[in-house]
Structure formats: structure tokens, C-alpha cells
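sry for the spam today, last one i promise. C-alpha cells for design, 119 residues
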């Protein structure tokens, strides 16, 4: 009796399962339709042509003097910045930049935080 009940339950469970082969799915839906919040803002910025909406790519240093410091964009009052002082250096010199106050790295380059609109 127990084996009969088990077979009936297994047969009923198999009948309710439906499989859709992947070959019938022609196209995945657009990820922008499903994204929300900051992920959606990032996808919309990339669709508009801004491939670096959060300014996470490496900046090339300019002259870096006190009169014309390297400008670092930020939407906040402070930002953590890393400076690779020499070309063959194996570590990064980290420092906090505060808005409105230029700061000098140990290598002598100056950095300044400038305002940027948030994403």
C-alpha cells in the first residue's frame, strides 16, 4: 500500500511539472526594464554614452602644482584618493581629500576636490 501511494504521489508530481526548452526563448528581455534604484541610473547613464558614471576609472595626473592642482570630481564632501607616486611603485599612497581644501601628496603633486552632480 505504501509503495502504491508513493507511486501515485510521484506520478502526480511529474504531471504538474512543465519544462520550456531554451530553444523556444527567442530573446532575453531588456535589463533596464527590470533594474531599479542606482543600478537603473547606472544603466541609463551608460545608454546615454557615459561609460564611467561613478568616476571609478584611473585619472592621469596633470601638472599638480599648488596653482593648478589635479581636480578630482566628487558628489560628496570628502573622497578617498590613491596616488601612484612613481611609475614603478608597487603600492598606492592613499589620502582623504576634503572639499575646498587642496592637499599635497608625499610625492609633491597637489589634488583638489571639485563638485560633480550625483548619478
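last one done:
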Amino acid at each position: 500500500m505504501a509503495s502504491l501511494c508513493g507511486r501515485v504521489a510521484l506520478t502526480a508530481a511529474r504531471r504538474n511539472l512543465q519544462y520550456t526548452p531554451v530553444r523556444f526563448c527567442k530573446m532575453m528581455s531588456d535589463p533596464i526594464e527590470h533594474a531599479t534604484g542606482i543600478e537603473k541610473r547606472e544603466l541609463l547613464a551608460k545608454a546615454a554614452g557615459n561609460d564611467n558614471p561613478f568616476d571609478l576609472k584611473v585619472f592621469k595626473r596633470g601638472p599638480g602644482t599648488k596653482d593648478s592642482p589635479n581636480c578630482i570630481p566628487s558628489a560628496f564632501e570628502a573622497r578617498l584618493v590613491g596616488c601612484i607616486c612613481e611609475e614603478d611603485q608597487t603600492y598606492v599612497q592613499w589620502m582623504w581629500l576634503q572639499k575646498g581644501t587642496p592637499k599635497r601628496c608625499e610625492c609633491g603633486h597637489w589634488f583638489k576636490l571639485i563638485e560633480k552632480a550625483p548619478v
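Residues 2-16 form the longest helix (15 residues). ok im logging off now
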